[in-house]
Amino acid sequence: MHKKLLAFLNIYPFQFRLMFWGMLISTIGSSMIWPFLTIYIKGKLGLPLTTITSLFTVSATAALITAFIAGPITDRLGRKWVLVISLAGNALIYLLLSQAKSFPVFVILMAFSGIINPLYRVGGDAMVADLIPPEQRPDAYAVLRLSNNLGISLGPMIGGLLITISYTTAFIFAAAGMLAYSLLLTIFAVETLPNKGASNATVGQLLSGYGQIIRDRPFIWFSLTFTLVQMCAVLIWILMPVYANNVFGIPENRYSLIPTTNALMVVLLQVIVTRRAKSFQPMKVMITGALIYAASVGLVAFSKNFLGFWIVIVVMTLGEMLLMPTSSTYVANLAPMEMRGRYMSIYGLTWGLAQGTAPVLGGFLSDQISPQATWLGGLTIGLVATLGFILLSRRPRVPTMP
Questions:
Q1: Which sign does the torsion angle of CA 289, 245, 355, 235 carry?
Q2: What does residue 149 show for φ and ψ, rounded to 5 degrees?
Q3: Which of 141, 191, 301, 402 is 20 to 30 A from 122 (CA-CA)?
Q4: What are the helix and strand counts (H, E) for the chain?
Q5: Beta carbons within 10 angstroms of residue 217's beta carbon
Q6: What secondary structure letter does DSSP report for 368?
Q7: Are 178 and 88 in contact (CB under 8 A)?
């Protein structure tokens, strides 16, 4: 397996391979923490779930503001240093989170996390589009997802064990992983910005390009619909751990097997699924993926033990493997070369919008109606997203996957 992976990666440029291994190291670190972050904060503060989830709204609001600037910055300054700053900044935030003890401090740190995170998403997606020709992009995005999920297959298990020692230990290891990737990029990566003339433009001139994107109605419709799908994912990743822990008493070290299952499925199946999916129109793939997301979040309402939650993640991962590389390729192929960073900014906003709305909505439904209401609400959101993709598929401008 190791030799086959190395041989497969060799078809890509060195810098892409650097991103693959760096992302693996970084993700092992970050995934030691994020599946358990809601449990950690609730345990620290002892506040209602609605209040705890409002921290993710703070982070997402900051991310929305930054995402608009991240695209122009990426198109002006280039990709490399945007990635380096994002990774190093996240490492510092993780260290500070380990010492946070009050709600206001968590608000500040989550806001800074929201400011930093879009930089990596936008810069990374743009760098891949710079490095890889269109016909190879679906596979390239799938390969990076493989790296990400290989890290997730290891990180939560390691984190679950470290947390039994202390959350602080887990945060330190997480920060070390992100800092290591930042140093790798600093030393070995080169800039990939294709249009050097764009770097001479002012940020104001680059921001003006968003008017063209707003007029791209199929893309805006796609972004809004994709946000609804992301809301389903956010509910599962952020609220399902605390739901399983508080309502059914499933401990962190056992729950860690659930994100690990997601990651292992992607590692073993993502490239195969992507190659099969390329024979279908992108919108049909995304419609199917959205429907599977809807089913998975609805299943949480009927899950009462570890096996039930494990089945949820298996179902969701099937939709994820269809939807995520397809959506990244859709946006990369849609964007003009000189506006790639800005298109990726808007695309990155979908996760920020979802992270800002879904946890608070889910927490409100849980606190005011019942814990199960969160998941029935998520099912409704997923079905609306499926309908949105169906309507978009009937519009005239739908790029085909190479």
A1: positive
A2: -80, -25
A3: 402
A4: 18, 0
A5: 11
A6: H
A7: yes
pLDDT above 60 for 204: no
How many CB atoms neighbour CB 79 within 10 A?
28
| Confidence label for 201 from pLDDT (cuts 50, 70 and 90) | low
* CA dist 247 → 304, 372, 387 (Å): 9, 10, 32
- For 258, residues 6+ apart whose C-beta sits below 8 A from its C-beta are 35, 156, 240, 309, 310, 313
Per-residue pLDDT, averaged over 304-314, amounts to 93
Q: Which residue has the higher pLDDT, 76 or 281?
A: 281
Best-predicted range by mean pLDDT among 149-163, 295-309, 325-339, 354-368? 295-309
Q: What is the C-alpha to C-alpha distance for residues 48 and 58, in angstroms, rounded to an integer?
A: 16
Tokens of 59: 């982070």
**Amino acid 402: pLDDT:** 39
Q: Which residues contact 90 (CB under 8 A, 6 or more apart)?
A: 30, 113, 116, 117, 120, 175, 178
Contact between 330 and 280 under an 8 Å Cβ cutoff? The reply is: no
Q: Which residues of 318-356 are buried (b: 16+ CB within 10 A; e: fewer)?
A: bbbbbbbbbbbbbbbbbbeeebbbbbbbbbbbbbbbbbb
Q: What is the CA radius of gyration of the chain?
A: 20
Query: 């104001």: which residue's tokens?
Result: 204
* pLDDT for residue 401 is more than 60: no
Tell whether the model's pLDDT for residue 197 goes beyond 60. no
- Residue 65, both tokens: 């503001």
